[in-house]
Amino acid sequence: MTENKALAPIGVFDSGLGGISVLREIYKLMPNERYYFFGDSKNAPYGTKSVAKVKALSEAIVEDFIQQKKVKAIVIACNTATSAAATYLRQKYPEIPIVGLEPAVKPAILHQTDSKVLVMATPLTLKEEKFNHLMERFADQGEIIKLPAPKLVEFVEKGELDSAELYAYLEDILAPYKGNVDSVVLGCTHFPFVKKAIQDVVGKDVAVFDGGAGAARELKHLLTQKQLLSPNQAVGEITFENSNATPGELELSQKLMNLAD
């Protein structure tokens, strides 16, 4: 690969701002790369839409990344879009590495014997064949319980990460599982931004997992394999764009990126 190709940016997209939780993990691992982050907040949440609609929205974003931004790799920083569109997009654009997200069921189920794992995600992610295959793979190693939590996306999109309303919503949906599960999987990239609130509600003895770090490692592996890692030693840059291109939306993007761990 030419050095010019290695210097090209990486495109990261999500149905809104949640994918910034994945971008944070990628940036920690590869701070000298250039990134374009596109949040489709105008169409959020994806998790309540049809597969066909999510596929069409994802394809339009990927097309723009490839044709206009000239990216060298793409991260679908959205569990719903991964479920609905990743296989199709990899077939359509075989020349470009495309990394998707999947709920971190494996580490959750393996962290202790006879695990009881609660997977919080959007309705579409939990309904899709991809997730149900994942459940089947680990069905004999523990119990996996699905919990749709679409409203959490809306809280993050509004920048509400610790409001009384958020806690009330979490208390309501998590009440049946308190004391009954040993781990929670955050199966939507918006959810790590409210991880502290979820941990507060389920209790500190419950392990909480998300897939962001795994996606970052997979991206680095693919870029290394294809000799596409940037040779630039300087700190890279991140450009935020959003379909709901208000100053407040872009300001919130920056704020979420800069949150303390």
TrEMBL record:
<dbReference type="InterPro" id="IPR015942">
    <property type="entry name" value="Asp/Glu/hydantoin_racemase"/>
</dbReference>
<feature type="active site" description="Proton donor/acceptor">
    <location>
        <position position="188"/>
    </location>
</feature>
<feature type="active site" description="Proton donor/acceptor">
    <location>
        <position position="78"/>
    </location>
</feature>
<dbReference type="GO" id="GO:0009252">
    <property type="term" value="P:peptidoglycan biosynthetic process"/>
</dbReference>
<dbReference type="InterPro" id="IPR033134">
    <property type="entry name" value="Asp/Glu_racemase_AS_2"/>
</dbReference>
<feature type="binding site">
    <location>
        <begin position="46"/>
        <end position="47"/>
    </location>
    <ligand>
        <name>substrate</name>
    </ligand>
</feature>
<comment type="function">
    <text>Provides the (R)-glutamate required for cell wall biosynthesis.</text>
</comment>
<keyword id="KW-0133">Cell shape</keyword>
<feature type="binding site">
    <location>
        <begin position="79"/>
        <end position="80"/>
    </location>
    <ligand>
        <name>substrate</name>
    </ligand>
</feature>
<comment type="similarity">
    <text>Belongs to the aspartate/glutamate racemases family.</text>
</comment>
<keyword id="KW-0961">Cell wall biogenesis/degradation</keyword>
<dbReference type="GO" id="GO:0008360">
    <property type="term" value="P:regulation of cell shape"/>
</dbReference>
<feature type="binding site">
    <location>
        <begin position="14"/>
        <end position="15"/>
    </location>
    <ligand>
        <name>substrate</name>
    </ligand>
</feature>
<keyword id="KW-0413">Isomerase</keyword>
<dbReference type="GO" id="GO:0008881">
    <property type="term" value="F:glutamate racemase activity"/>
</dbReference>
<dbReference type="Pfam" id="PF01177">
    <property type="entry name" value="Asp_Glu_race"/>
</dbReference>
<protein>
    <recommendedName>
        <fullName>Glutamate racemase</fullName>
        <ecNumber>5.1.1.3</ecNumber>
    </recommendedName>
</protein>
<comment type="pathway">
    <text>Cell wall biogenesis; peptidoglycan biosynthesis.</text>
</comment>
<dbReference type="GO" id="GO:0071555">
    <property type="term" value="P:cell wall organization"/>
</dbReference>
<keyword id="KW-0573">Peptidoglycan synthesis</keyword>
<dbReference type="InterPro" id="IPR018187">
    <property type="entry name" value="Asp/Glu_racemase_AS_1"/>
</dbReference>
<feature type="binding site">
    <location>
        <begin position="189"/>
        <end position="190"/>
    </location>
    <ligand>
        <name>substrate</name>
    </ligand>
</feature>
<dbReference type="InterPro" id="IPR001920">
    <property type="entry name" value="Asp/Glu_race"/>
</dbReference>
<dbReference type="InterPro" id="IPR004391">
    <property type="entry name" value="Glu_race"/>
</dbReference>
